[in-house]
Amino acid sequence: MSAVEAKLAELGLTLPEVVPPLAAYQPAVRSGVYVYTAGQLPMVDGKLPVTGKVGAEVTPQEAKDLARTCALNALAAVKSVAGDLDRVARVVKVVGFVASAPDFTGQPAVLNGASELLGEVLGDKGVHARSAVGVAVLPLDAPVEVEIQVELTES
User: Fold this and answer.
1) Which of 82, 88, 101, 136 could form a disulfide with 55, with the two C-beta atoms 3.0–4.6 Å apart?
2) 112 touches 48 (CB < 8 A)
């Protein structure tokens, strides 16, 4: 078990299976020392636990928890091409999309769910730049979607 997966276990979490793509793309690709994930939905056992717009059908706290699940799914996608999460040198960028009710402006707080998970699991390597974007709708009516870019160690 990698040190990162041991940290996940310490937090009571397990790395899920990679979520299969919904269309013509790969869950993650590697280019040199970088891994770019596709947008990860908060799928759990092949299903979305909640659907709808944040600020309407979905509370901000529920959405924050879902962003955490997205980040966990993104780490699984990274492992699928990196082989070992201990090779993560740092998370470079996180981009998050929040399906928002028209008057909802708390996208950054929702995306803190993903950012905080990456920090808990990876420590200083999990500190990153980030964008939090409100959108009208996401695939499958998901409330949140997260993609990450990570740098790997050379070896």
Assistant:
1) 101
2) no
